[in-house]
Amino acid sequence: xxxKVLNRFAENNQKTxxxxxxxxxxxxxxxxxxxxxxxxxxxxGEAQGPFSMETGMNKFLKNLGITFxxxxxxxxxxxxxxxxxxxxxxxxxxxxxxxxxx
Length: 102
Known about the structure:
Order of helices and strands: HHEEHEEH
Strand content: 15-25%
Structural class: alpha+beta
Helix content: 25-40%
Number of domains: 1
Distance between the termini: 23 Å
Low-confidence stretches: none
Strand order of the largest sheet: 1-2
Number of strands: 4
């Protein structure tokens, strides 16, 4: 619901919204582009992007060493089990984040 309200507000007012959140599902539902922040806490940080969702999430998830798939029933993002067949296949292909078409 919140994502729909934010999207409508931004579109109706022809504005860009910058949303900072740790909920990957919300980011997935809301975002069209993504910035990636990297660094060492309290020492150094760097903002990169904006990227397309696929490019940004691939960069972010690669840094974490995890892969995502889209749940077939709910369409929500799910973390693959570390070392699972799908996890290994996605890492080998460089596709840590499911594509927008999946």
